[in-house]
Amino acid sequence: MPTPPVTTRARFIKGVVAILAGCAVNYIGDRLLGIKIELFHGIQTFSFLWILDMFALPFFVGMLVAVIFGLGGKWLCYFPPLIVRAISYYEISHMTGVPQGTALMPLGWWGFFVILVVEASAFGGVMGEIWVKGTYGRSPRQMIYKESSNEAGEE
């Protein structure tokens, strides 16, 4: 079997590092905030720290992934929050159990919250790409035309 080109291997390794770094930051952030969105404590579940864990932390995780990976990182930023949330749900439901006075979030609500977390991460991924690229989108047609006409006039 032929080996892939060096650039493909380097990009793959960069992607794996970006995803692992995003997972680590997301996991550590969850533990520092002390929030587990998989557990329901009643109305006090939806606190300021819970909102930070749902929106701000994934935003920065997505931004980190995009900055590490570079262009195309907005597509990888979906994975770290999804991985961390799935592992956390599995851990609570099958390994550690649900603490006294709480309930495991129903799978439908948990899925909705995961979608929100992943979308916050996607927004961070887009912002990270903007940061890496310096701009977002393509160059305007008139700018390209001016550059080509200036080069033609210099010759």
Strands, helices and their partners?
Blueprint: H1 6-33, E1 39-40, H2 48-69, H3 73-76, H4 79-96, E2 103-104, H5 107-133, H6 141-154
Antiparallel strand pairs: 1-2
Helix pairs in contact: 1-2, 1-4, 2-5, 4-5
Show unreliable segments.
Answer: none
How does the major sheet shape up?
2 strands, antiparallel
CA-atom Rg in angstroms = 21 Å
Tally of helical runs? 6
Mean pLDDT: 86
Shape, per Cα inertia axes: elongated
Strand portion? under 5%
- The helix/strand series, from N terminus to C terminus, equals HEHHHEHH
Strand order of the largest sheet: 1-2
Q: Tell me the distance between the termini.
A: 49 Å
Q: How many separate domains? A: 1
Structural class: mainly alpha
DSSP E strands, number = 2
The share of residues in helices is: over 70%
Describe the structure.
The chain has a two-stranded antiparallel sheet. It has one domain. With 155 residues, the chain is mostly helical. Helix 1 (6-33) packs across helix 4 and helix 4 (79-96) runs antiparallel to helix 5 (107-133). The model has no long low-confidence stretch (mean pLDDT 86). 23% of the residues are buried. The protein has 6 helices and 2 strands; from the N terminus they run αβαααβαα. Helices cover 73% and strands 3% of the residues. The protein has helices at residues 6-33, 48-69, 73-76, 79-96, 107-133, 141-154, and strands spanning 39-40, 103-104.
Features:
mainly alpha, 155 residues, elongated, single chain, 6 helices
